[in-house]
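Worked Example 4.2. Consider the chain below.
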Amino acid sequence: MSHILVIDDDIHIGNLLQEALEGEGYRVSRAYSGTEAVLALERGRPDLALLDLMLPGLSGDEVLPRLAGVPVIVVSARADIDSKTALLLGGAADYVTKPFVLRELLARVAVRLREAPAREGAALAFGNLRLEPDARAASVDGEAVRLTRTEYAILKLLMTSPAQVVTKSRLLEQIALDTPDCTESSLKTHVSNLRKKLRDAGAQDYIESVWGIGFKMAAGRPDTKPSEAGSCRDG
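Applying the procedure from the previous section yields the following structure tokens:
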């Protein structure tokens, strides 16, 4: 049973969503503020989150980065294109404007859950590429690919959110524990080296650059922009 976290301070909307989602067979938990949402995430990660933006305590914009690795559908009255674009590039999987059609929202939830990768610790797969988080190992068609710590961290983050563009800033923030001294220029070098290793092992060019923004997983779509040189300590 998939677990959905509804983060909305509007009790009426929250009740409506909970009733509809539970009617579809999902397990639902609630958070009525951004701060409460962060506490809920410390107790366990949901399979998907529905996130309002205008929240007491921490705003939805501030909660979104805490939901890295969880498919997030923003459900908000903000309708301007700039807000939608920024949130989608910042990690949201989808954006639904209030007032919404309940049937459409339920369909979007089902689609995002179907596309979502396995939970932390389970193997991640993309085409003939496979990642084993428990063993920190990557393989192409069953043959091991030796990656540095940084390359592994980059690949894991991209494969965890395969349908999303992962911004450079988010990549640098998320892999900081592995290589805290990496910079934006060295990140490009590591991505370039990672792509070469995967191609040499027989994988398609699965990592696509979104020019000026970041990177995403994309089957066989080569990067058309040149990489910049850089350096970073790695092991």
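The domain at 124-217 is CATH 1.10.10.10 (Arc Repressor Mutant, subunit A). DSSP finds eight helices and twelve strands in the chain. Compare this with Example 4.1 before moving on.
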